[in-house]
Amino acid sequence: GQSLEQPSEVTAVEGAIVQINCTYQTSGFYGLSWYQQHDGGAPTFLSYNALDGLEETGRFSSFLSRSDSYGYLLLQELQMKDSASYFCAVRDPYNTDKLIFGTGTRLQVFP
Amino acid sequence: EAGVAQSPRYKIIEKRQSVAFWCNPISGHATLYWYQQILGQGPKLLIQFQNNGVVDDSQLPKDRFSAERLKGVDSTLKIQPAKLEDSAVYLCASSLDGGREQFFGPGTRLTVL
To answer: A25-41 pLDDT, tens per residue?
Structure first.
């Protein structure tokens, strides 16, 4: 089966940089996505990596190392509004339109 | 562009009652997903439709859950009868390339008493 591991909680202060790690075990790898979810809100797409390396989108970047089955989401210049849960998700190798989500990392940003 | 619409936003029922949720995906999105999200966990796929056909329902508890997507647009998810452990947020999502980016609705928070 497929599984993903993330830290359950991360804390940081405004203006800082934080990294949220994700390790995965899959029988085949086709891509890693990141989603943000505020309390009571819908998950929203942040980033996607199919190949090794760094993808940058504004203050957010995502990194992938397929050889290590590892990725991370990097959030820079943290703002209070970044307090949310962050989920990594991999494509199911048997149905690549299906995502398997991790358990999520709750980020708390303090002033 | 309008997002994914869901209703109701909140529902409270007693165990053994039935409940139905409705979803209207983004126009043109052929793939529609229903997820169950229990507090503190990631979304878990219940069922995936491609147009009005089922692609994956391997994790749908078929003895009590059912879903349909008539005419390949709107979808409904039903639970009958509900159990206490069904208390969760039910999320609908749609996509063009679902393995990369899915667009989620606001969800329905179900409480079973």
So the answer is: 999 999 999 999 999 99
